[in-house]
User: What shape does this take?
Amino acid sequence: MYAAAADPRKTYHTSRPSRGPTSGGIDIMAGQTVGQNWSGPEYRISVSFRAPLDFAFAWCTDFTPQDASLEGESYRRKIIERTPRRVVFEDLEESDAGWEWSRDVVTLLPPNRWHMDGIGNHRDVTADYVLSPLPNGRTRLDLRWRRRPKTPEAKKKTKAEREASAIRAWKRFGAAMERDRRRTPRAQRHRAK
Assistant: This one.
């Protein structure tokens, strides 16, 4: 799955206040379905992290070329654009079926949401990510996504297999996030931008 990894040399700051829980006036999780005009299943997972929401948001949306190694994958990532509200990146990976390329546009909706639309030579994907605070400084990620295969040779996995794979990847990301949190000095954890 697509995710973010932190550069251990960076300082993570508290997110700026949100303009509200909507994207273009539409609540991106309540009552909406991701990729609603796409056929096939909607995938859903939830994972919790031992990090507060502001740190989790900053970490999860800090897309870097090192993300693949944290995920246990071999794709190469290039960041094309990074602004306070948008990140565009491309991934390239060699597979048995040849090169797999994708371009993802991530819309950041601080303090707790982001949306991703991706196109690729083997599949397109759309996803919504929402972070919610939990007791004791923890955070839950709810991820919903749909994918649209473009080629018959695209990997055929069941809904359960895709969701299990995403949970494994996000648990790896969570462990890396928690390591980064422990390394970040307490004074820098809560400093505003």
Summary: Residues 16 and 111 are 7 Å apart (CA to CA).
